[in-house]
């Protein structure tokens, strides 16, 4: 499968991200993503033009997403790349990629990124990752809840911060 992508054999659609173009196969994209499948089987502009413009991801993210779609592998992305890839996986409903991203984010979880990862988990409705981050914040509550990052997070995302505090209270009661 990687050879099909790398050598651009019989490609029938192009994903365009700015000036970058990524030739691909509708069948493979549709098999891995219900969103792509719907795009390519319905009467949409993408079907007629054989092109899909992606404006909410960068070229590196789309390249990594395609590599995963074709090979089921990720090439050791850094934290920021994983967050962008998680967004793309969620948007195109590539659930196995979304799960891998969550596992990578979980392994990278630390006091300085806990709020950001919690927000990401909430935005992408990833309850497993959200629970993991809540557990982490509960475990390291003193430094995290006293940090400037938490104070800012609490002001901007009051309801989510409340959920975390409720989680911590419930954990202490057990």
Write a compact overview of the structure shown.
With 174 residues, the chain is mostly helical. The protein contains twelve helices and three strands. The protein has a three-stranded mixed β-sheet with strand order 2-1-3.
Name the features.
three-stranded mixed beta sheet; 174 residues; 7% strand; 3 strands; 12 helices; mainly alpha
Give a description of the structure:
The protein is mostly helical. The chain contains 12 helices and 3 strands. It has helices at 2-7, 26-32, 34-41, 45-49, 59-71, 79-91, 95-107, 114-123, 127-139, 141-145, 148-156, 158-173, and strands at 13-17, 20-24, 51-53. The chain has a 3-stranded mixed β-sheet. The relative contact order is 0.09.
